[in-house]
Amino acid sequence: MRSAIERGDPAEQITTRLASDLQTTLSRQLYGGDITGSVSLTGDVLTLARNQYNALDNRNTRQDKAMNFTQSFGSSGDQLLSPRALPVWEDLSSTVRIDHASILISALEQSAILLADFTIDTQKKLQYNNWGKYGRKSLTRLQCSGHV
Hints:
This protein is mainly alpha-helical. 74% of the residues lie in helices and 0% in strands. The protein has helices spanning 2-7, 11-28, 32-54, 59-80, 86-91, 94-118, 135-144. α2 (11-28) packs parallel to α4 (59-80). It is elongated, with a radius of gyration of 15 Å.
């Protein structure tokens, strides 16, 4: 994925691949490196998306690409914050867990802002099972339970 970002591949294709890879990994076995590696890509792929979409002249194309990006980016976050991933998060050191959870939540919020910046519709609704519902609550639960 890092090489795809460095090449400047379409950001929405990178996040679609990331979401697909995470889904496959979660169905087998997720490791701490899967979490930290995925989270470490978020800032760079967000920057890439913003730069690519700013360069587009067609507002509809920008919106479509931003929507596809945000859906797949959010799906990746949803998978990383799923109940199945929680034990892997708990295996990370407290510093790594807090840093990466904070980066992930911030990146998910930034992806929603990116969509808002490039949308021409008055409303968009995206549905995720875990990151809106559990993201902050899970982090808080980990902190309060003494695991952090």
